[in-house]
Design brief:
Elements: H1 2-12, H2 17-59, H3 66-93, E1 112-116, H4 125-138, E2 143-147, H5 153-158, H6 161-164, H7 176-185, E3 197-198, E4 207-210, H8 215-228, H9 239-246, E5 253-257, H10 264-272, E6 275-280, H11 284-292, H12 296-307, E7 315-323, H13 327-345, E8 354-362, H14 365-372, H15 385-402
Parallel strand pairs: 1-5, 1-6, 2-4, 2-5, 6-7, 7-8
Antiparallel strand pairs: 3-4
Helix pairs in contact: 1-2, 4-15, 7-8, 7-9, 9-10
């Protein structure tokens, strides 16, 4: 620093030796003053560190013996070590590819669990979930549809305004899955209760919805951080799936409306699914979204979800949605879906069973009417005869994929009155 000041003043006053000597003296004084300020700053920082240390020591009970203190320090170091190991694993593999940790899976028995998923948004996952659930309930099955996306589309579609009210932000009543994440992530003894609500189809008591709210996104992030930091013994990626399977033994079908992104809810839902339905619209972006689900970038996640599990992976079915009503459009969509399924089967490393659905969902006005509640007669789009026939066909395909025998007509519910 002194050399800097000297060079500056040397350029300003190159000839005057007296002034140069004066400048050198001032430079020396300035340098000493600068170092003094630096030492004062370091001294203050050191004082702050000692203050923190004193406060920490005050928090330690006086009766704490040396062995307890050493054990506490060792436990803290062990947590840091686990966290560092997960950081290293995440850097090398990605957080969604870290090997399985502890979770408590149940055998795949009843109910049959269907996940409706696509990493591309806007393809009609919520519509398929709600209407397929309604059709299966109409056939006499006990059905629960579960909203796994904090955007709450399924919750809004299946519940009335009176049921929802102002509860879509962080209200506990609409966040049973978020509460489960919080309880398991903190190793709570008191596990949250299963919470379901009647859908707007009041004439179908067999058809329930498990709603959600914005709080789900918050609890997903918190649970992931707790597990990643070693604060929770449960692998956060499987908490949602474990909890759903433990609370749905009384149902015949559980249909999961999955988010268009990789989250704890998606990994949990996929880990327990018997069938994954991938809706696609007749455009390249939508097709690419389904194809990316099986891309090499996802292979490690596939291994975590299914290849390291003790049960068979789910079947996959691709179905065309929002297609034109003309026969040519329907045939083109059906052909595109079949080709996409065959292309996916040909991807190196894929060992999953992928089918293309014969059913094609047409773009009909009934969908928009039901979504906006403009027609009181349409609680869901399936109340329209045109939509009903499509989902009758599709539910039959679903039963075949899952090898489920239809309920006999004597035990099925009376068919609801359809809107022409």
């Amino acid at each position: 620093m002194g050399e800097f000041f000297e060079s500056v003043f040397r350029e300003l006053l190159p000839e005057d030796n007296i002034q140069r000597a004066l400048v050198l003296c001032l430079t020396l004084l300035g340098t000493l003053f600068w170092r003094h300020l630096s030492l004062v700053g370091k001294h203050h920082r050191l004082e702050r560190c000692f203050d923190k240390l004193r406060n920490s020591l005050k928090d330690i009970p006086k009766e704490t013996n040396q062995e307890e203190l050493i054990k506490s320090v060792q436990d803290s170091l062990a947590r840091l070590h686990r966290f560092q190991n997960r950081i290293n694993a995440a850097n090398n593999q990605g957080i969604w590819r870290v090997p399985r940790g502890r979770h408590d899976p149940l055998p795949k028995t009843k109910p049959r669990i269907i996940a409706v998923a696509n990493l591309k948004g806007g393809v009609g996952k919520t519509t398929v979930t709600a209407n397929l659930g309604a059709r299966l309930a109409e056939q006499g099955y006990r059905v629960a549809v579960v909203d796994l996306d904090w955007q709450q589309s399924l919750t809004r579609l299946c519940l009335t305004q009176q049921q929802v009210g102002g509860k879509l932000d962080y209200d506990g009543e609409l966040t049973p899955i978020a509460s489960a994440l919080d309880a398991y992530a903190t190793d709570s003894v008191d596990k949250p209760r299963w919470s379901e609500m009647e859908t707007r189809r009041s004439d179908q008591p067999e058809f329930k919805v498990v709603p959600t709210s914005l709080r789900l996104g918050l609890e997903e992030d918190t649970a992931l951080l707790r597990w990643f930091g070693g604060e929770s013994q449960y692998d956060a990626r499987f908490l949602v799936g474990d909890w759903i399977r433990r609370n749905t033994a009384d149902y015949d079908f559980v249909i999961l409306d999955c988010p268009p992104r990789v989250t704890l809810s998606l990994t949990g839902g996929l880990s327990i699914a018997d069938l994954v339905i991938l809706p696609v619209t007749p455009d390249q972006l939508s097709m690419d979204g389904a194809r990316f689900f099986f891309s090499p970038a996802m292979h490690s996640l596939h291994r975590i979800l299914w290849e390291q599990a003790t049960f068979e992976p789910p079947k996959f079915a691709i179905v065309a949605n929002r297609c034109g009503s003309h026969k040519t459009h329907v045939d083109q969509a059906r052909t595109a879906v079949k080709k996409l399924a065959n292309d996916i089967k040909g991807i190196r490393g894929i060992k999953l069973e992928v089918e293309g659905a014969q059913t094609v969902f047409k773009e009909l006005i009934a969908y928009s009417k039901a979504a906006t509640a403009l027609d009181s007669k349409l609680s869901l789009a399936i109340d329209s005869s045109d939509v009903h026939s499509q989902y009758s066909s599709f539910s039959g395909e679903v039963m075949d994929w899952l090898a489920v025998s239809p309920i006999s007509p004597d035990h099925s519910r009376k068919t609801i009155q359809l809107v022409q």
